[in-house]
Specification:
Layout lengths: L1 E4 L16 H9 L4 H8 L4 H14 L22 E2 L5 E2 L2 H7 L7 E5 L4 E5 L2
Antiparallel strand pairs: 1-5, 2-3, 4-5
Helix pairs in contact: 1-3
Length: 123
């Protein structure tokens, strides 16, 4: 079992996602506007950027369904907050401990990951 804690702030090295008028983008594509004109109108630098925004627009408008991955957090399960206390211990709520089936004395390996940290229960 793995628990992942994601950092709350945006990575400052990654550019903010460009805001795009989804309806306008879809309309231009459906009307047959050439890709180069669409890229110029939306100030896309690459074809990949254009295609990524077009796919996102189709998903956002419900034209096509979003692909579900095994790593996504279920929207029906809200994120639970944990706290590091003054001694440096990570405090996980009793509710989450019970929900995950942990007991007093359960041990974990802790690993730093690109996404944050990973806790893996030791069998």
């Amino acid at each position: 079992m793995h628990l992942f804690f994601l950092p709350q702030e945006r990575n400052p090295l990654m550019p903010a996602k460009k805001k795009v008028d989804c309806a306008k983008l879809i309309k231009m594509v459906k009307s047959g506007t050439p890709q180069s004109e669409i890229m110029k109108a939306f100030k896309f630098n690459t074809a990949i950027q254009f295609k990524t925004h077009y796919l996102s627009a189709l998903i956002e408008t419900g034209t096509i369904p979003e692909v579900k991955t095994g790593h996504a957090i279920s929207k029906s399960t809200p994120a639970k907050e944990s706290v590091v206390n003054k001694r440096g211990s990570l405090i996980i709520s009793k509710e989450l401990v019970e929900e995950m089936g942990f007991a007093e004395g359960t041990t974990f390996t802790v690993r730093k990951t690109k996404a944050g940290i990973s806790l893996k229960k030791i069998a």
